[in-house]
């Protein structure tokens, strides 16, 4: 049976030429009026497509700049498969040319799909930044994988200037491209919604000026949708009502596959508000459900809720796995609920809720503990963009409203309704976030059921302990996954196990002696042990199963800052090409005990973080 499945799957995998290609985005949404057709853009000198203000458009047709002597440094085999491309396709000349921006699937005689850059704006660090857009990303085509029916938009990052490049060069440096290439695939392997990375190409001739001159690179990346909250912010700032309606309709019908797949408006019982299928149903508090029934919700309100719910789940996963994006501006927040645009991201080393990986984030706006509230702040901005559509209720399709907007008389009621829906969506966001966070944390701790008291006694107490003793967040879960319950029966046994969670040099807690540090962990282990016994019983075989299930959700490998720095150093300065493939393999299979390629290196990368490389920070320059 298993082999039949994989045969069917492999028979669907094809060459890049055979791969289905569509342009739904550019055919349904308005193009830049300066270059309305692919022909108009193609005829223009490349420089004419350089930065300017673009109005009334969702995108501009623009081709990648050609690159000299690109070298394909790596391909994600998982990405190849998910797109439906056959293994080995990466060795063809066409593949190498396409992912480096030297070929695309359009010509004047036969047409095809012409590349484009998206137009959007954004709120950056709490201030309105105006028009931004794909300043160095160019989408090549969309493709639907016939085995999964998932449609992806494939794009190149670092492919040259577009009308949205502002003062910058349209290029990406190798350093940040390596980081994005690996983390995209790592998050996906951890089950965290993310944009993906197919390949990494080095542009040895492109000398890119940042703080120093650096080699350039292109990541070929793909996502179900590249739309951002900022995509709505820009037309909202310009009063372009028509564009907002078009974009919202596109999101519902094309990104989310139809209005009927959005949360239901009528019966807001448990099935709509329940977090995800794998979890036991959990409804909202009764008063909230009743409130829902009092306000008429139209399809745009349901769309807004869907976007909020998706983002709630994604942030919950970031919090549960200690991931930080580092720059959660609205232009980096995905309508589809994907982790997006990797700049100064990081995984948590020692647990510290104040930590931000962004060197320039002095206010800690994008720190670990602020991520859930900052995404909600972004969702309120999105609610303002959609406010008119949400607030119009059943009148949303009335001809006069569509053409002229709300009348003065009707405005107060519209505003009130929009505010109520946004506020209520805030409650829903919190509920979905908490449910998913608890679900993931319970799983990480090996629990099969959830108890009201777990949050305080297990989750919070664990995080406080890790913070107080300066212990590594992700290592704790992985190491706990191999602790047999049998060794935790006595206080002495628990204190014996406790130093497993210490760093090589011990714990770092201020005011703690070796003994009091052990005691604090032992106390937590006792509570945890009792919960595991409740869920799994005391059978030794069940405990082996419990350990295995924990290792399946607690990664042994995560691409931490210090590892990525070493990879960058080895690729860029020492011409090492093999390291990238090995680290990608680890990122794609993060729960493995070993990978069988380089034992010492694997142990080092999964082991203690070198003391002076913990909680590293990155600048935004990339
Ligand atoms: P980011 O901070 O990377 O999310 O980028 C914010 C905005 O700046 C986006 O519109 C990017 O497309 C644009 N941008 C960043 N770096 C460059 C670059 N080197 N060339 C052109 N545009 C860029
Ligand atoms: Mg961005």
Automatic annotation (TrEMBL):
The UniProt record lists the keyword Nucleotidyltransferase: yes
Name this polypeptide is given: Selenoprotein O
Source species of the chain: Aspergillus mulundensis
Protein family membership: Belongs to the SELO family.
Keywords from the named record: ATP-binding, Magnesium, Metal-binding, Nucleotide-binding, Nucleotidyltransferase, Transferase
InterPro entries the UniProt entry points to: SelO
Lineage: Eukaryota, Fungi, Dikarya, Ascomycota, Pezizomycotina
Domain of life: Eukaryota
Cofactor list: Mg(2+)
UniProt-annotated stretches for the region Disordered: 24-45
Record keyword Nucleotidyltransferase present: yes
């Amino acid at each position: 049976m298993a082999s039949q499945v994989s045969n069917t799957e492999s028979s669907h995998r094809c060459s890049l030429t055979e791969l289905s290609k569509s342009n739904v985005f550019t055919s349904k949404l308005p193009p830049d009026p300066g270059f309305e057709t692919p022909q108009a853009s193609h005829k223009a000198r490349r420089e004419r497509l350089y930065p300017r203000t673009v109005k009334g458009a969702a995108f501009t047709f623009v081709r990648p700049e050609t690159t000299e002597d690109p070298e394909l440094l790596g391909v994600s085999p998982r990405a190849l498969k998910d797109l439906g491309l056959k293994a080995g396709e990466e060795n063809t000349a066409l593949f190498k040319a396409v992912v480096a921006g030297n070929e695309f699937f359009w010509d004047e005689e036969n047409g095809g799909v012409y590349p484009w850059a998206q137009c959007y704006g954004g709120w950056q660090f709490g201030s309105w930044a105006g028009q931004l857009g794909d300043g160095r990303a160019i989408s090549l085509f969309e493709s639907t994988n016939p085995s999964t029916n998932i449609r992806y938009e494939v794009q190149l990052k670092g492919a040259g200037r577009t009308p949205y490049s502002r003062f910058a060069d349209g290029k990406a440096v190798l350093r940040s491209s390596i980081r994005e290439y690996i983390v995209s695939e790592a998050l996906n392997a951890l089950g965290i919604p993310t944009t993906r990375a197919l390949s990494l190409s080095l542009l040895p001739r492109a000398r890119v000026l940042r703080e120093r001159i650096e080699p350039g690179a292109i990541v070929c990346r793909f996502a179900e949708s590249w739309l951002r909250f900022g995509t709505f912010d820009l037309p909202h700032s310009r009063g372009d009502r028509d564009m907002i309606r078009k974009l919202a309709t596109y999101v519902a019908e094309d990104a989310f596959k139809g209005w009927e797949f959005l949360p239901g408006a009528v019966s807001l019982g448990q099935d709509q508000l329940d977090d995800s299928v794998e979890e036991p149903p959990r409804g909202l508090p009764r008063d909230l459900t009743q409130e829902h029934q009092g306000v008429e919700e139209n399809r745009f309100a349901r769309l807004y809720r869907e976007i909020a719910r998706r983002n709630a789940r994604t942030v919950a996963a970031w919090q549960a796995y200690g991931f930080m994006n580092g720059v959660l501006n609205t232009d980096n927040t995905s309508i589809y609920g994907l982790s997006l645009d990797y700049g100064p991201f990081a995984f948590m080393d020692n647990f510290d809720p104040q930590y931000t990986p962004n060197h320039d984030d002095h206010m800690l706006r994008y720190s670990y503990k602020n991520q859930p509230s900052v995404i909600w702040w972004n969702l309120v901005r999105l609610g303002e963009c959609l406010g008119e559509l949400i607030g119009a209720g059943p009148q949303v399709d009335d001809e006069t409203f569509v053409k002229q907007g709300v009348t003065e008389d009707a405005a107060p009621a519209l505003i009130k309704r929009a505010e109520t829906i946004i506020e209520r969506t805030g409650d829903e966001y919190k509920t979905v976030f908490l449910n998913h966070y608890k679900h993931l944390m319970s799983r990480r701790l090996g629990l099969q059921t959830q108890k009201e008291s777990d949050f305080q006694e297990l989750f919070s107490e664990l995080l406080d302990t890790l913070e107080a003793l300066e212990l590594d967040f992700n290592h704790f879960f992985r190491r706990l996954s191999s602790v047999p319950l049998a060794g935790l029966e006595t206080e002495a046994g628990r204190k014996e196990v406790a130093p497993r969670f210490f760093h090589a040099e011990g714990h770092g807690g201020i005011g703690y002696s070796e003994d009091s540090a052990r005691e604090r962990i032992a106390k937590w282990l006792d509570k945890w042990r009792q919960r595991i016994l409740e869920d799994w019983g005391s059978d030794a075989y069940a405990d082996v199963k419990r350990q295995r299930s924990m290792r399946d959700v607690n990664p042994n490998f995560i691409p931490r800052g210090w590892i990525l720095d070493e990879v960058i150093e080895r690729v860029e300065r020492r011409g090492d090409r093999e390291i990238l493939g090995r680290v990608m393999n680890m990122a794609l299979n993060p729960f493995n005990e070993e990978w069988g390629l380089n034992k010492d290196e694997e142990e080092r990368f999964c082991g203690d973080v070198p003391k002076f490389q913990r909680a590293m920070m990155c600048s935004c320059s990339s």
